[in-house]
Write a structure and sequence with these properties.
Layout: H1 16-37, H2 64-72, E1 78-82, H3 90-96, E2 99-103, H4 107-119, E3 125-128, E4 148-154, H5 163-173, E5 174-183, H6 189-199, H7 209-218, E6 224-229, H8 238-248, H9 256-268, E7 270-271, E8 276-277, E9 284-290
Parallel strand pairs: 1-2, 1-4, 2-3, 4-5
Antiparallel strand pairs: 5-9, 6-9, 7-8
Length: 296
Amino acid sequence: MPIPRPATPDPLRPDLGSLEAAWAARVAADREQVERAREVDDPADYYAPTAGRFRPAPDRPVDPVAGILAAIAHPDDTWLDIGAGGGRYAVPLGRITRGVVAVEPSPAMRAVLQDEIARSDGSRVRVVAESWPPPGWPDPAAVAPYAASVGLFAHVGYDIAAIGPFLDALEAAVTRRCVAVVAEGAMTTIARLLWEPIHGEPRILLPALPELLAVLIARGRLPELRLVPRVVPVYASADELHEVARRQLWLRPGSALDRRLATLLPAVATRTEAGWTVDPEPTRIGVLSWAPEADR
């Protein structure tokens, strides 16, 4: 059953409308900040320059999240993976369940995903080129083609202003569990470190794990939570690190701010045996799981 909601205003339990409005305001403030600071236009496919990094590599560290998802999965499940990316979770889940519907709006990401499905051994994944919620929502018929036992979104939602309809559609589409994989903080480590030195103001932080927990509780859900260490991103060269930092900071190659970035990066970058990284402190990833007991 959904957990009871307060009958009267309670400062320890903010109402859902206030939380959703605050979430939307944070996302809007982030977008406005980027618009003020950017030196380059938003590409048609934001993930096109980096989609290759989402391709599984043989030497990639074991992802503890994958083990948690495998433990949640039942052999007779069908899964819905919203924002499936390059298939990090959709492809292995497709091997141990009846199948996965992988929703992915980015053409570059879908290309990686299709390659991984083709290379996989018996993974049952159907790819859908769509955003979430699907067109036609909140008509219940809009989510009928996505019906599944379990719905998953991993590192999706940080920049989605209308988080309420996103979750409503997810819960309407699935019957057994909803699962969210969310970082403690939105995953832009380089931008958090260097936005103020480059752009002259602190970076606005998008909603992440704590905020999603608050929203779910206000919706009457009490999710199970597992925390695992975040796998630190590693870049093959200092040039690749600079390219990623430039992209997160929205800089034009060769600009005055880009040259300033080149002078700042050595102070925050570390070279390891695996490559270059920027990670000042350990952070965690949360895996949230709850029953889709939507009020419908």
